[in-house]
Design a protein that fits this description.
The chain has about 250 residues and is an alpha/beta fold. It has a single domain, classed as Spore Coat Polysaccharide Biosynthesis Protein SpsA, Chain A (Alpha-Beta Complex), CATH 3.90.550.10. It contains eight helices and seven strands, in the order βαβαβαβαβαβααβα. It has a seven-stranded mixed β-sheet with strand order 3-2-1-4-6-5-7, with helices on both faces. Helix 5 runs parallel beside helix 8. The chain is globular and about 50 Å long. The protein starts with a strand and ends in a 6-residue tail after the last helix. About 40% of the residues are buried. The structure holds guanosine-5'-diphosphate (GDP) and magnesium ion (MG). The site of guanosine-5'-diphosphate has 17 residues, from strand 1 and helix 3.
């Protein structure tokens, strides 16, 4: 039977911190009135992320959970896209493996899609900073603000935080757009929002709670440089018509 919601968890070398959050997600979903599946996408990890996820899924044989894995690390964007293509539900939510945004926040994103109000809803740490319990390290947080400023200037999007790892999508409208997505690493959030907006989808930035997990896998210098480069690529792609459909 088709579930009401598919939750995608992109995971790269997460064997040390995935089990707890994954159990939290499954146990939360089992208390809900809607049905859900969870898909962990192992983004070419060099540790045993897949085994860690499968071990948790086997603790809940009645719950629809599975792992998708490929050999080479491609990036969070590629992992999320892979998970979305495998998802069975009409509403998909992706969440970081560390649950920095608590899973209970999903209603804030999913309900407006269920009600038909919006096509894409995404968590934001910028709209209500009082919802941030544990902050990112100061330099990461400032870097995030600069990045979002650059994104606003370069893409013309009116958003304050494009990078929160908690976003939901109406698949009947968003699925066709996946075919034109190009960005495989952390700039993919910007591309998802940009292309959705370009094609007239209804987007909503929504304040969510955030308790940063400091065991980040992000390499600030390398990944920041890549992200700015990816935003430039998005602009180039848009000018060249890469995002045109039909
Ligand atoms: N760093 C990193 N994370 C990835 C990659 N692919 C998927 N992810 C996942 O992306 C999510 C965000 O990673 P995290 O290290 O928590 O980022 P941060 O909280 O922004 O510092 C986690 O679920 C990762 O497992 C990748 O290639 N690199
Ligand atoms: Mg994190």
């Amino acid at each position: 039977m088709q579930p009401d919601l598919s939750i995608i968890i992109p995971a790269y070398n997460e064997s040390d911190r995935l089990a707890g959050p994954l159990r939290t997600v499954i146990e939360y979903l089992m208390t809900q009135s809607f049905t859900a599946e969870v898909i962990v996408v192992d983004d070419g990890s060099s540790d045993d992320t897949t085994a860690a996820a499968d071990a948790v899924f086997s603790e809940y044989p009645e719950f629809a959970g599975r792992t998708v894995r490929y050999e080479k690390n491609r990036g969070k964007g590629y992992a999320v896209k892979t998970g979305m293509l495998a998802a069975a539900a009409d509403i998909v939510l992706f969440s970081d493996a560390d649950l920095s945004t608590p899973i209970e926040e999903l209603h804030k994103l999913v309900d407006p899609i269920k009600n038909g109000e919006f096509d894409v809803t995404f968590g934001s740490r910028a709209l209500d900073r009082s919802l941030i319990g544990t902050h990112q390290p100061w330099r990461r947080e400032q870097g995030g603000k600069v990045f979002n400023l650059v994104v606003r200037v370069m893409t013309g999007m009116p958003f304050w935080d494009t990078q929160c790892g908690f976003k939901a999508f109406s698949m009947p409208t968003f699925r066709p757009l996946l075919d034109v997505m190009q960005i495989e690493r952390f700039g993919f959030d910007v591309e998802f929002l940009y292309v959705a907006r370009l094609h007239g989808l209804r987007l909503k930035e929504i304040a969510v709670r955030w308790n940063n997990d400091d065991r980040s896998k992000v390499n600030v210098l390398r990944d920041s440089v890549r992200m700015f480069d990816e935003v430039r690529q998005i602009r180039r792609n848009a000018k060249r018509g890469v995002y045109d459909i039909g």
